[in-house]
Amino acid sequence: MGMVSYLNGTFIDTGNLTISPYDLGLLRGYAVFDIMRTHNGKPFLFSGHWKRLYNSAKQFGLKLPVSEKEFAAVLKTLLRLNGFRESMIKTVVTGGPSADGFSPAGKETFFIIIEDLKTLPQDVYLLGAKVITLEHPRECPSVKSTNYMTAMKHSRERMKRGAIEILYTCGGKALEGSVSNLFIVKRGGLITPKEGILLGITRNFVIKLARKLKLQIEERAIPIKELLKADEAFMTSSTRNIVPVVMVDRTRIGPGKVGPVTKAILDAAERYNESY
Q1: pLDDT digits (tens, 9 = 90+) for 131-140
Q2: Residue 45's closest CA among 72, 5, 7?
Q3: Single pTM value for the model
Q4: What is the pLDDT of residue 64?
């Protein structure tokens, strides 16, 4: 058997994992998901990921077929069967097959895929990255839905411009990345948006780290003008961790290199991850 996944209560060869063409996740985008990674082979920040998946499903009127304890047990088995040194875990729950292609039948599709974790080049963390902005307020931002149409539509433009991420903006304010949360550094303190975004698990982790480092933290809106004049900036996500941002569109952030506050948070996160 090759890679092993989990589908509706059954462990299955990933190559044999099939979903009905009448599934509402495919036909109507009626689905939520979660992505987490492992550190030292263990699901990282598991409880936070479970709570967000549960809340996303609840807000969309979807039911998870497993409890938190059952979910943990399934992940433990999948990680053992696949045997990667470090893994990326993708969990998806959809509205399931529909007789008329529109109405939920009350039988969700639930599957989990385990993949070998692929990380960004180390230079990204040492030298920083570029992001581009796009005016786009996400629909239902508090839900981690599978609707990434805008990000996919603009992915070629992002790559063409040498950017690692798309930063969504709305009404003159910077919100969040397509797959990440935004932080800026001003006068040694952190500022991160709180409204109109998906509250990321790594975002919350960084806030806790910053408090341990005795850094001042503000959770509030960030005007684009303030972002462009920030001393430092970085973005956070479950698989990419903490990515320093040194360029937004054509504007250099601060001195254009990884700043001391960002580096302190990166170092603190690395120490935590190594002992996880």
Answers
A1: 999 999 999 9
A2: 72
A3: 0.95
A4: 97
